[in-house]
Amino acid sequence: MYAVFIDEAGFSWNWKEEVDQQPFYVLSAVMLPMDKLASTYNALRERVNELKIPGLDSQKLGRGIEIKAKDVDSGQGYWHNNEEHRNQVRDLFLSAPSEHGGNAIVVVVDKQAHIQKYVDPQEPHDLALQFLFERLQSYLEEKNSECICFFDRTTRDEFLINSATKLTMRGSHITYWSQFYSNYVEKWLPIPRILEFYIQDSKYSLGIQIADFFARYTYSKRKSGRDDYSGWDLIEQSLYKRDGKLKGFGYKEFPADKEQ
Asked: Regarding the domain delimited by 2-254, which CATH topology (the fold level of the hierarchy) does it fall under?
């Protein structure tokens, strides 16, 4: 059984009008084995404690205290003049899944390309959730396991639960490129291995805080256009791969080439 923590970056209610300010939408999922959850949390808190960050009680992380990935990434507040701690905290959060038997999936929607390609483009967050669940189902099938999902609390809690429930009840209509047929193939994908969903404030979930780092740093990497963006090498270590293949499994970008 896995606990799956889900967070986002780049959301905007008026996404078409604000595409210049928020050009991408990223949805991340961090999959951690239930039987390793306590050891993962304890190890992360202890390693943050070893950094001796002034005013931070690491034992309260996920227990009412949060380190915001956006602040670390952009160098806001304390992180502005403390580059060493900034980099160390980034690395600790982004390496947590790979060090404790976990994996991750990230989905990126290029909003401008989406607008240009489709006459009536779907909401980016709606598409991203569908793509994420499809890949999570594939991951769980490979692991012969199930999961419980934890979403970060947002202003769209009811939407998230309703959308997630519809996907698990009805499955997902997918179109993919078949190398065998050299053409696109359509089918319905059942999604039975995602058992339940919960909404949790990230202040009270260390797992969601880890997912926050994956969403934020993926967003910043994609926006920068740099493959060497800080932290991306650690994200890649955790991303779900099948037969060594990353695109279409642990990493999905939309609109995409055939292989995704």
From this structure: Nucleotidyltransferase; domain 5 (3.30.420)
Q: Residues 3, 37: contact at Cβ < 8 Å?
A: yes
User: What is the C-alpha radius of gyration for the chain, rounded to an integer number of angstroms?
Assistant: 18
Question: Residues with Cβ < 8 Å from 206, sequence gap 6 or more?
Answer: 41, 44, 45, 61, 62
Alpha-carbon distances, residue 50 vs 18, 44, 89, 183 (angstroms):
41, 10, 11, 54
Q: Residue ranges per domain, the chain?
A: 2-254
DSSP string, 24-67: EEEEEEEEEEGGGHHHHHHHHHHHHHTT--TT--GGGBTTTB--
What predicted TM-score, i.e. pTM, was given to this entire model?
A: 0.94
Confirm if 248 and 259 have CB atoms less than 8 A apart.
Answer: yes
List the structure tokens of 85: 């701690």
Q: What's the pLDDT tens digit per position in 100-138?
A: 999 999 999 999 999 988 888 889 999 999 999 999 999
